[in-house]
């Protein structure tokens, strides 16, 4: 599917960056430095996650509000419906709307007791992400993105059930899917074929996770149904005591993954930044994404002072 151009010669694919809301002063400082550094890559939007059981409602709101007021970026708020009545969810949507949010990443979420605990819809709430998407679309003319799982959601019976759920979310009004992270592009390629065969035409944007800490990623991948291939563990595992070399190799591996996806025709990428800029910036530089130094932009880090 490659058209013979190198990554550098193509028209630039679009980017989005995902952050989580900071909980400490140090984390606060770090996220604004990160947002400031990554603004140079002119992402089409950035998103801020929402904690399990609504546990980060206030910090998510504060972070998104500040991105909208202090930076030139377009911000999407993640929103879950787990453990909440519809009235609760609507109150949250109103708060986000009041600070200027027009784009939601609508998710079912995991129980507050943790990933893997049995999910029970709130009796007065939205039962799943598809219902939440419909609720959002009934309330306002929002852009709504949703999740997708190239290696299957751990609760799904099979990939077909997963794709049925994606279709329900699209039928309810979702216009973009952001995938769970994966490391072997073949998972994405096969998944996309099945998604398209099911008549789903929306962009399915690969979620890219440059690996900061292998053990953490292995643990999280185990919980959310993603595979960490042996070749990746073999490359990064021995570098645990050499942070610079580990970062160099991690960036190189993620850059190769992105280039592989570009060769498949992918033109939109969602980066799980872990609120750190260096690794993501290194990946983007290696692939040939341009930095656009915009002197007119407000600097998020500067505004933090
Ligand atoms: P859905 O799309 O409703 O379901 C996902 C899949 O699980 C479906 O395909 C369906 O087949 C299967 N499934 C769901 N329920 C059942 C059931 N009862 N029985 C059998 N199968 C079932 N979590 C957060 O808490 N906050 C966030 O900000 C957040 N951001 C995310 C961003 C992205 C891009 C992704 C990929 C995930 C994110 N998550 C977040 C994680 C997400 O909340 C969990 O994966 C959750 O378990 C499912 O939510 P969902 O919206 O994907 O669910």
Topology, element by element:
Elements: E1 14-19, H1 25-39, E2 45-48, H2 57-70, E3 75-80, H3 86-98, E4 103-107, H4 129-139, E5 143-148, H5 159-171, E6 176-181, H6 185-197, E7 204-208, H7 214-224, H8 230-236, H9 243-263, E8 268-272, H10 278-287, H11 300-304
Parallel strand pairs: 1-2, 1-8, 2-3, 3-4, 4-5, 5-6, 6-7, 7-8
Helix pairs in contact: 4-5, 9-10
The structure holds flavin-adenine dinucleotide (FAD).
Protein name: Methylenetetrahydrofolate reductase
Enzyme class: oxidoreductase
Family: Belongs to the methylenetetrahydrofolate reductase family.
3D structure, described in words:
With 305 residues, this protein is of the alpha/beta class. It has eleven helices and eight strands. Strands 1-2-3-4-5-6-7-8 form an eight-stranded parallel beta barrel, surrounded by five helices. Helix 4 (129-139) packs parallel to helix 5 and helix 9 crosses helix 10. The radius of gyration is 19 Å and the shape is globular. The structure holds flavin-adenine dinucleotide. Flavin-adenine dinucleotide is lined by residues 49-50, 52, 78, 80, 105, 107-110, 119, 128-129, 147, 153, 155-156, 161-162, 165, 178, 180, 207. Keywords: Amino-acid biosynthesis, FAD, Flavoprotein, Methionine biosynthesis, NAD, Oxidoreductase. This is Methylenetetrahydrofolate reductase. Its EC number is 1.5.1.54. It catalyses: (6S)-5-methyl-5,6,7,8-tetrahydrofolate + NAD(+) = (6R)-5,10-methylene-5,6,7,8-tetrahydrofolate + NADH + H(+).
């Amino acid at each position: 599917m490659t058209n013979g151009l190198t990554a550098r010669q193509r028209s630039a694919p679009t980017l989005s960056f995902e952050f989580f809301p900071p909980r400490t002063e140090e984390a606060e400082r770090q996220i604004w430095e990160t947002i400031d550094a990554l603004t140079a890559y002119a992402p089409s939007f950035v998103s801020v996650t929402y904690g399990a059981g609504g546990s980060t409602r206030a910090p998510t709101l504060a972070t998104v509000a500040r991105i909208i007021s202090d930076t030139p970026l377009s911000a999407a708020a993640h929103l879950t419906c787990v453990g909440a009545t519809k009235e609760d969810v609507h109150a949250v949507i109103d708060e986000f709307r009041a600070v200027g949010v027009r784009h939601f990443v609508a998710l079912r979420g995991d129980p507050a007791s943790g990933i893997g605990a049995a999910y029970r819809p709130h009796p007065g709430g939205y039962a799943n992400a598809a219902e939440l998407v419909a609720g959002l679309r009934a309330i306002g003319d929002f852009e709504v993105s949703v999740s997708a799982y190239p290696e299957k959601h751990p609760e799904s019976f099979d990939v077909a059930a997963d794709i049925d759920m994606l279709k329900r979310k699209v039928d309810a009004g979702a216009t973009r899917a952001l995938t769970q992270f994966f490391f072997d592009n073949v998972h994405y390629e096969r998944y996309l074929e099945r998604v398209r065969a099911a008549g789903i035409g929306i962009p399915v944007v690969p979620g890219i996770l440059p690996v900061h800490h292998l053990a953490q990623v292995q643990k999280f991948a185990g919980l959310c149904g993603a595979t960490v291939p042996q070749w990746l563990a073999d490359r990064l595992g021995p570098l645990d005591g050499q942070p610079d070399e580990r970062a160099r190799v991690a960036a190189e591996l993620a850059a190769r993954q992105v280039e592989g996806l570009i060769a498949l025709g992918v033109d939109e990428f969602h980066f799980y930044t872990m609120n750190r800029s260096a690794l993501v910036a290194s990946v983007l530089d290696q692939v040939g994404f341009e930095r656009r130094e915009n002197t007119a932009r407000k600097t998020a880090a500067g505004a933090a002072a």
